Amino acid sequence: MSLTFFTPGPAQLYPTFEQHLQSFVSGQLGSISHRSQQYRDLHKFTVDQLRILLNVPDTHAIMFLGSASEAWERILFSCVELESFHLVNGSFSKKFCEYSTALNKYAHKFEKPMGEGFTADEIEVPEYAELICVTHNETSSGVQMPVSEIHKLKQKNPDKLIAVDMVSSAPYPDLDYNLIDTAFFSVQKAFGLPAGLGVWIVSEKCLEKARQIKNQYSIGAHNDLPTLWKNALNNETPATPNVMGIYLLGKIAEDFNKIGVGEIRKATEQKAALIYDFVEKTSGFSSFVKEVQNRSQTVVVANVEASSADIIKKIKEKGMVIGSGYGEFKGSQLRIANFPATSYDAVEELVQELGNI
Amino acid sequence: MSLTFFTPGPAQLYPTFEQHLQSFVSGQLGSISHRSQQYRDLHKFTVDQLRILLNVPDTHAIMFLGSASEAWERILFSCVELESFHLVNGSFSKKFCEYSTALNKYAHKFEKPMGEGFTADEIEVPEYAELICVTHNETSSGVQMPVSEIHKLKQKNPDKLIAVDMVSSAPYPDLDYNLIDTAFFSVQKAFGLPAGLGVWIVSEKCLEKARQIKNQYSIGAHNDLPTLWKNALNNETPATPNVMGIYLLGKIAEDFNKIGVGEIRKATEQKAALIYDFVEKTSGFSSFVKEVQNRSQTVVVANVEASSADIIKKIKEKGMVIGSGYGEFKGSQLRIANFPATSYDAVEELVQELGNI
C-alpha cells in the first residue's frame, strides 16, 4: 500500500519527484563532471529558480551544503567573531545555540518554553552580540515567528547581522532580503525531496565579516564562506556536490514557480486552517501553540488526550503517516506537516480519518 | 546515445544502480523518518555490508558525512590538537594539508612533485606531529602509495595516529585496521553512485583523542566525532542524513560482497594492466607515473603527445568519456578511471578505440 506522509521531514515526496528523477537517470547526470559546463548550467538553473521563488537579490549568493545543520556551523564561523545571540524555544533553536558554544563563541540566549513565540518588542539584543539567530519555524514545537516580527527585529538592530532558520518552512516565509543577512533550509521538508542537501542564502555583508574574522580566527576549512562564494560565482562548489539533489531541487523550484509562490503560500494557509480548525473543534485534540500568530503554517502540533502512538497506528492503517511529538512530548502530541506535496484533498481526508478515531 | 564514463568521479554508475534506485522509490524510503526503526535497519545494513567488504573491526565505527572533504576537516578537528603531518604529491593531498592550516593547526609536510610517490623508509615524521595524513590514491596525478608502505609507516611511528584518504580507490586497498586509525572515501568514485555522501571509518583511539582535545579546543560543532559516534551506536546520525545515498551504498556494497572483494581487486588489477600496457606500448602515449609500484590501479594518468582535448572529443564520439589531466596538466594528460562499474570488455573497447585515433 502506498502511504501519504504528513511527517515533518523526511516528508511526502513532491508529486513530480519521480519524473524528475527519471530525467536525471536517463540523462546520465549522475556521471557528469562537477567541473563541466553541463554541471555549471545545471547549478545555475537551480540557483536561478530559487532566486525567483524566494525573491533573493543579487547581493545574496545561494549555495549548497550537505544539510541545514551544516549551515548553522558555517554561519557561526562566518558571522561571529566572539558573541552570538539566539532566540530559543525548542530543540532546533537550542541546537543552533549549542553549535555556537561548541565553536567556542559566547552564545547569549533569550529562552522561552516550547510552544511559546517571540515578538520583536520584547527582545533586547546584547550589546556585543554580532549575530541574531532566529528560527522562523521551530519544527519541534510548531511555533513560527511572524515574518513581520523578524523584519522588525532587524530594523530595531540594524547594526547586527540576522540569520533565519527556515528549514521546515521555506518557501512559505516571504523574507525581505534587504533586511535578512542570511537564511537557510533543507530539501526534505517543504520541497518534498529526499534528504541530503542544505541551501544557504548569504549576503555580501556576511562574506565581508567572514573575511575580517579570518584575519584572526579560523572560519573553518570545509565549505568556508570565501571559498564557497568564489566557486559560486562560477556556478561550482569547492567539493563534489550532491548533483542529484541540486538537479531535483531546481526542477521542483521550477514547478513551484509555474504555480507561483503566492499560490503556494495561499494553499499552505488554507490547508493549515483546515487542520487547526479540526484540532480546535474536536474533543481530545487541542492546539499546542496558544497564540494564533505563533502557530506554524507548515508544522501543526496538537496535544492529544489519547496515546499519540495509538492514533499514529490507526491512521497508518488508513494509509497516512503522521509524526509524534518531539522529545518529552512524544506520547502526548502529534506533529502534522503541511507541505506543498500534500494536497487540500489529502489534508481533508486526514482530518476526516482523525475525526473517526 | 548512452555514454560509458571512464572519468575519475563522478564516474560511471554501477550497473545495478537503477534497480536499487527503483527499490528505494517504490519502498517510499525517501519519506521515512531518520529516527525510525526502519531507518536504523537500513543504516545498519549499509554499515554491516561495508564492514564485511572492507574488513573493518568493531574497534572502528563507520559513519556518514556529506562528502570526503568534510572528512578531512572532521579528522583534523578530532585528531590534531596542534600539529599534523602530510605527505603531499598532488592537488588533493595538498588540500588536506591546507585544511589543517585553515583550522589554525600547524601543518608539517613532506612534498614531492606530481607523479612521484612515497616509501615508508624515506619519511621522517616530525616529533610533535600528532597525525600522519596519507593519500592512498592521489586522484590528480594517478599516484598510489602501496598499502604495505602505509602499514610500514604506521609501524615505524606507532605513537602517531594515521589517516588514509582512499577517496578514489576504496574498496581496492586492503587496509589493516589494526594499524590504520582512520580512513575515508566518497561514493561517486569506485562505488559507482551519484555524489553527495562521504564515508568515515574511525577508531576508538581517534574518539579518545577528540574527547581530550575538546577539553581545551573546539573540535567543531556539526558532525563532531563524539556526537557522531554516540548516534552511530544507535544506527543513527546527528542530523538528517542522505538516506538515499546510504541505502544505495549498502546495496552496492552487498553486490560487491556477492562477487567478493578479492575478485573485485583482481579484476581491477587486470583492467589496469590492460590500460597501462596500452599506454606503454602505444606511440604518442606514456605513463605519467614512472615507478611501477606507484601507479594507481584505479586512476590511470597518461601523458599524450596530441592535444588531450582532441582525444577526449574523438573518444566521446565513440560513446566513451575520459578525463583530462588535472590543473597544469589539463592539456597534456588523460585521466582514465578504472572502477568496478566498467567491465573488462568496456576497457578493452576503450584501449582499442584509443589506439585507432
From TrEMBL, chains A, B:
Record bears the keyword Transferase: yes
Keyword Transferase among record annotations: yes
InterPro entries: Aminotrans_V_dom, Pser_aminoTfrase, PyrdxlP-dep_Trfase, PyrdxlP-dep_Trfase_major, PyrdxlP-dep_Trfase_small
GO terms under biological process: glycine biosynthetic process, by transamination of glyoxylate; L-serine biosynthetic process; pyridoxine biosynthetic process
Domain of life, per lineage: Bacteria
Keywords: Amino-acid biosynthesis, Aminotransferase, Cytoplasm, Pyridoxal phosphate, Pyridoxine biosynthesis, Serine biosynthesis, Transferase
Enzyme's top EC category: transferase
EC identifiers of the protein: 2.6.1.52
Pathway as given in its UniProt record: Amino-acid biosynthesis; L-serine biosynthesis; L-serine from 3-phospho-D-glycerate: step 2/3
Entry cofactors: pyridoxal 5'-phosphate
Family: Belongs to the class-V pyridoxal-phosphate-dependent aminotransferase family. SerC subfamily.
UniProt cross-references to PANTHER family, sorted A to Z: ALANINE--GLYOXYLATE AMINOTRANSFERASE, AMINOTRANSFERASE CLASS V
Name used for this protein in its record: phosphoserine transaminase
Organism of provenance: Dyadobacter psychrophilus
